[in-house]
Specification:
Layout: H1 3-9, H2 12-59, H3 66-88, H4 92-124, H5 129-187, H6 193-227
């Protein structure tokens, strides 16, 4: 007998379980493919994206002290790393739930098929192959469907988790580099605009004073020469 013959012997419970497994299979495939592609894209761009965000934050902290700069950098890094982790885990609960419950749904269909077989034996009073073939075939089909739905969900889940670990590795590695560079910048601060202007004014005053001294020395030399 083919699948359509088994389908004719199934009742509403078995048909409902079949459509539930079919829906879980479609959802897990779509979610798994999208999750893997997005995680791979995030793994490539997470380091550069984090650097750009920290650079824009440090541009706003020009003139701040070292403690404020370090605290703000750490808080910004923690915030963005948390967002990356949240974005990389989207869809994983669907895959995990599908991988967990699909075999049990198939097992429930198996039990229901065996119940049909026993019911046929009790009704007919005979334990022949004709009374148990269709219900047992229905039970085996439901078991196979449950396993077929669970296996891709498990594969997508493990693959996405592996890629997400790489995302977090790149994010944490770049975060440590940014913290180190921020600490060096705080230890050797760049001169601000106000500092540069003060230094320029001091240099101008020094040049004016030097020019005045040279003029005075030239006047003394002329006066001594005229006396001779």
């Amino acid at each position: 007998m083919d699948f359509m013959q088994y389908w004719q012997y199934s009742d509403m419970v078995t048909k409902s379980l079949f459509f539930v497994l079919l829906a879980l299979s479609i959802i897990s495939w779509v979610t798994g493919i999208i999750r893997v592609l997005q995680s791979r894209k995030l793994a490539v761009s997470v380091a550069d994206d984090l650097s750009q965000k920290i650079q824009s934050t440090q541009a706003e902290l020009v003139g701040s002290d070292a403690a404020t700069r370090r605290l703000t950098t750490e808080q910004t890094l923690l915030k963005h790393i948390g967002r990356y982790r949240f974005a990389s885990e989207r869809g994983l609960p669907i895959l995990g739930t599908t991988a967990s419950i699909a075999p049990f749904i198939g097992l429930f269909g198996t039990v229901w098929g065996i119940f049909h077989a026993l019911h046929n034996i009790g009704t007919s009073g005979q334990a022949g192959l004709g009374q148990v073939a269709a219900p047992v075939g229905e039970a085996l089909i439901m078991t196979g469907l449950g396993i077929a739905v669970a296996i891709p969900a498990v594969v997508f889940y493990n693959l996405a988790v592996r890629i997400n670990r790489r995302v977090m590795y790149h994010a944490n590695d770049r975060a440590h580099e940014l913290l180190a560079s921020s600490a060096q910048l705080a230890a050797n601060p760049q001169p601000t605009v106000a500092t540069k202007s003060v230094a320029a004014q001091a240099q101008v005053a020094k040049d004016v004073q030097q020019s005045t001294e040279e003029v005075q020395q030239a006047g003394h030399y002329r006066s001594s020469t005229s006396q001779l």
